[in-house]
Amino acid sequence: MKPGAHLRFATDVRSYADEALQKILAHGQFDWLAEKADDWRRPPTDHVRTRYESKNLGDIAPVFYEFSLKSS
Fold first, then answer.
1. pTM, to two decimals
2. Cα dihedral sign for 11, 71, 31, 45?
3. Residue 9 half-sphere exposure, CB side, CA atoms within 13 Å?
């Protein structure tokens, strides 16, 4: 990834969301772009809902994390 590139992560599984957030933040090279809870609770405007997501099989409402790769 190039500096400034965005990484998006979405899931409806709590353990996966928690682990991914912890690992991405611990990496140290990503800035989490959320400024308020709605920033990760609402899908991005260009989000395409999948058939899997439509089945609501996860244990939480979907979360949508977005990060930016820091400049070196």
1. 0.88
2. negative
3. 20
